[in-house]
Amino acid sequence: MFLGCIAPLRYPGIERSxxxxxxxxxxxxxxxxxxxxxxxxxxxxPLNEKTWLVLGARNLSLxxxxxxGIMTVCNGCQTTLSEVSRxxxxxxxxxxxxxxxxxxxxxRYDKDVTVRHCIDLLYDDxxxxxxxxxxKNSLTGLRVAIHYxxxxxxxxxxxxxxxxxxxxxxxxxxxxGADVIxxxxxxxxxxxxxxxxxGAPGVALNVASQKIKSIAQARVDCIVVICSFCLLQLDRSQxxxxxxxxxxxxxxxxxLQLLHLALDSVPAAMLGFKSHSIPxxxxxxxx
Length: 287
Known about the structure:
Largest sheet: 4 strands, parallel
CATH architecture of the largest domain: 3-Layer(aba) Sandwich
CATH class of the largest domain: Alpha Beta
Distance between the termini: 28 Å
CATH topology of the largest domain: Rossmann fold
Strand content: 5-15%
Helix content: 40-55%
Radius of gyration: 19 Å
Structural class: alpha/beta
Order of helices and strands: HHHHEHHEHHEHHEHHEHEHH
Number of domains: 2
Shape: globular
Number of helices: 15
């Protein structure tokens, strides 16, 4: 399991839910000491692609030497690690150059590593039917707006699956008993990606504001994301927007947290909701 930066630092409930959900569904995951930032594709890659490749390859090497694949919980991490893996697999000369850099810290990346997003693993390997059978606390009547995230959709396009991946998140949410609600800005960015949140925070907030406004008009109970960075943006932007005299109070959850609620009657504290800016009472009162 590759947690990346945001989940362990800002939203530890994602990790707690990942361990609980995968255990219940019979998926054995491992924790590897030494993983760093993936590194973030929108920040590192445009500045220095070689640095981006070296840092990504270092992370891949930690899994490779143990014979593990990697499961991500963040779209940005998924993009970086899967793209670095593809690039180095296709270019042996470049791979050797990257390994020269890694040799200075006693590491080498030889065996290719498969990188998969947690929701793809759940959809393809566990299956919607099995998840439905395992649900103990059906979220029937819960109105959910799904945010897919740019990097996940880009990954889908580059791997030839196009927008069929939209169905993955929708079917997985429906497996919990919840209803997926359409809204006009469902395909737009959260506003944080590609360094926008750091380099142009006003633009990032404006993009998030438009998306959240669209979601509010759909009268949903919560937003479900599949990316920890998108969670950060859509959760904390609502507090910033409130300072500009527009108040939104729509809880934002990672899918793993939603699934954890459906699989177990679990105390809110175990889901890490204290670290969320928007209180989850709307969700907990329906479960």
